[in-house]
Specification:
Blueprint (H helix, E strand, L loop, with lengths): L2 H11 L6 H7 L3 H6 L9 H22 L4 H12 L1 H10 L10 H5 L2 H23 L1 H11 L4 H6 L6 H12 L5 E8 L6 E8 L2 E8 L2 H14 L1 H4 L2
Antiparallel strand pairs: 1-2, 2-3
Helix pairs in contact: 4-5, 4-8, 6-8, 8-9, 11-12
Length: 233
């Protein structure tokens, strides 16, 4: 990563780091060091560890101060905000992926594995901002990129798992409970893959695949939720 790139990223997040190497370390994945022995920085896992705790504290404080809901609801909302998928989306919006230091093998990876790397890198960024700028600047950053999503998490019930959300929506609007049926399964017993269809009444709504029946059902439910308006018009 060149100095110019560092400055571009700082402009994007609106924070000028005092310690440029600390910012650079945010993007160093462990796999990169395996192929680049003697690299001048450590990987980002300690920053990730710190950032995870700081992020949870800031989100918890915000929810506690802004909402009078019971503990269980606040916990569910917090979980939806800081889960890996949500953090990887923010990382993508910040363009974090183009700055990553990855091994050649990890550079070729995608899907869930890349999502995890991006989410972890975002947590490392939070840890680095906390160390370099302090808690107040960190809170402003989290407020800008994450806490603005709280109303939609609550309104759209994103804190529910996909199957629970689909069931609640379906029962409210159709009076029917979704039913999941295995459409196909393949592969050896130790590495099976499943494709599951979700039906409401006798109508097929969507399908999803996964390495377990539950994962496939959740994928099908997520797909049905994304297309709910289209499927029910």
């Amino acid at each position: 990563m060149s100095q110019k790139n560092l400055e571009e990223f700082e402009k994007k997040i609106g924070i000028g780091f005092n310690d440029k190497n600390l910012l650079k370390q945010v993007f160093v994945h462990r796999s990169y060091l395996n192929e680049n022995v003697g690299f001048d920085l450590d990987h980002n896992e300690r920053l990730e560890f710190l950032g995870d705790a700081v992020l949870e504290l800031i989100v918890t404080e915000f929810l506690y101060n802004q909402y009078k809901n019971p503990e269980g609801e606040l916990t569910n909302w917090r979980s939806a905000l800081v889960r890996g998928e949500a953090l990887s989306e923010i990382a993508n919006s910040l363009g974090i992926e183009e700055f990553l230091y990855l091994s050649k093998g990890e550079q070729k990876s995608g899907g869930k594995a890349r999502q995890i790397i991006l989410a972890n890198t975002f947590e490392a960024l939070v840890g680095a901002i906390f160390l370099d700028q302090g808690i107040d600047i960190t809170k402003k950053f989290i407020s800008k990129v994450l806490l603005t999503k709280v109303p939609s998490v609550i309104k759209d019930k994103l804190y529910l798992d996909p199957k629970s959300h689909l069931q609640e929506l379906s029962q409210a609007q159709t009076g029917l409970t979704p039913v999941y049926k295995i459409l196909t399964q393949y592969g050896p017993d130790h590495a099976k893959s499943f494709t599951v269809g979700v039906f409401i009444g006798d109508k097929f709504k969507s399908e999803g695949s996964g390495s377990s029946k539950r994962a496939a059902e959740e994928s099908a439910a997520s797909s049905a939720l994304e297309r709910w308006t289209e499927l029910n018009n």
